[in-house]
UniProtKB/TrEMBL annotation:
Belongs to the bacterial solute-binding protein 8 family. It is found in: Cell envelope. GO terms for cellular component: outer membrane-bounded periplasmic space. Keywords: Ion transport, Iron, Iron transport, Signal, Transport. This is Iron ABC transporter substrate-binding protein IsdE. GO terms for biological process: iron coordination entity transport. It comes from Donghicola eburneus. Residues 1-19 form the signal peptide. The gene is isdE. Residues 39-299 form the Fe/B12 periplasmic-binding domain.
Length: 300
């Protein structure tokens, strides 16, 4: 009996074997992608988000509870393992024409490439908006949906422009993520940093340490920074984990005494789209809508 990876290697279909290809931008630079692939696997929630927005049918998805807005995109679709541990045997049987991976599944891309043509569609947090638009363009080119992709990009750009105009003069902000009773702050180079760089909301504390997991902070720190706005991401809620809610964690006199607390400008964002599918076009538009609603209703 042949080892599993030997079987997988024999079933792999390199991009070069596909009759037609199109060059697109990926996280690793320009690459040839199959044109109009019939069987599609997506192991990245931001990719699933944007493919769903374009109306692309997906044949294989990760075994994960999606944000509510992606429930229909996941309904009835075959699962092919998790983001971190794909089911290579199921993928070999499925024989997809293309696998879109990235983000949480980025580390397994070399192994995936042994099974099927795999594209690294990871979105870099430090240039999230640019990468998000690049991915929209890429998916549009692959599936012959460039006009639809252009319309999505224009819609996103319009929302960003509106949010930026509304944010002008509304003060600074501190981005916090809660995880049970723990609190971390995120700066402009973080996964949530586009709220500063693209929307134009100044950082209340520009010296937050860079890093994927933010910088652990105390309630005293939040009080000292005294931001005009606090934008809150509840990680536990995002991943469906039972834990202390963000509103409970931050319910104390130190946070309440900040300008954000005093003016009703602590904004609890819908965390699953932002945390799980950050960079997907629907996720971005959803968060922008929340931000604009908060800015529109503010007293500042």
């Amino acid at each position: 009996m042949k080892p599993l990876f030997a079987v997988l290697a024999m079933t792999a279909l390199p991009v070069s074997a596909i009759a037609e290809t199109v060059e697109i931008d990926t996280a690793t630079g320009p690459q040839a992608a199959p044109l109009n692939p019939a069987k599609v696997v997506a192991l990245d929630l931001s990719a699933i988000d944007t493919l769903d927005a374009l109306g692309v049918e997906i044949d294989g998805i990760p075994n994960i509870t999606p944000p509510a807005y992606l429930a229909d995109a996941f309904d009835g679709v075959a699962t092919v393992g998790t983001l971190f541990e794909p089911d290579f045997e199921a993928l070999a049987v499925m024989a997809p024409d293309v696998v879109f991976a990235g983000g949480r599944s980025q580390t397994v891309i070399p192994a995936l490439a042994e099974v099927a043509p795999t594209l690294d569609m990871t979105i870099d947090a430090t240039k999230l908006i640019d990468d998000a638009k690049s991915r929209i363009t890429a998916y549009g080119a692959i599936f012959g949906l460039s006009p639809e992709a252009q319309a999505l990009t224009q819609e996103l750009e319009a929302a960003l422009a509106d949010a930026k105009a509304m944010a002008e003069g509304k003060g600074d902000a501190l981005i916090l993520m809660t995880n049970g009773g723990k609190v971390s702050a995120y700066g402009d180079k973080s996964r949530f940093g586009w709220l500063h760089t693209a929307v134009g909301i100044p950082e209340a504390y520009p010296d937050v340490a860079d890093g994927r997991h933010g910088e652990a902070v105390s309630f005293e720190f939040i009080a000292d920074v005294d931001p005009d706005w606090i934008f809150v991401v509840d990680r536990s809620a995002a991943i469906g984990q039972e834990a202390e809610a963000a509103a409970v964690t931050l319910d104390n006199p130190l946070v309440a005494g900040t300008k954000a607390g005093q003016n009703g400008q602590i904004v609890y964002l819908d965390s699953a789209p932002l945390y799980l599918a950050g960079g997907g076009v629907q996720s971005l538009n959803h968060t922008l809508s929340e931000i604009m609603t908060a800015l529109r209703d503010s007293n500042s």
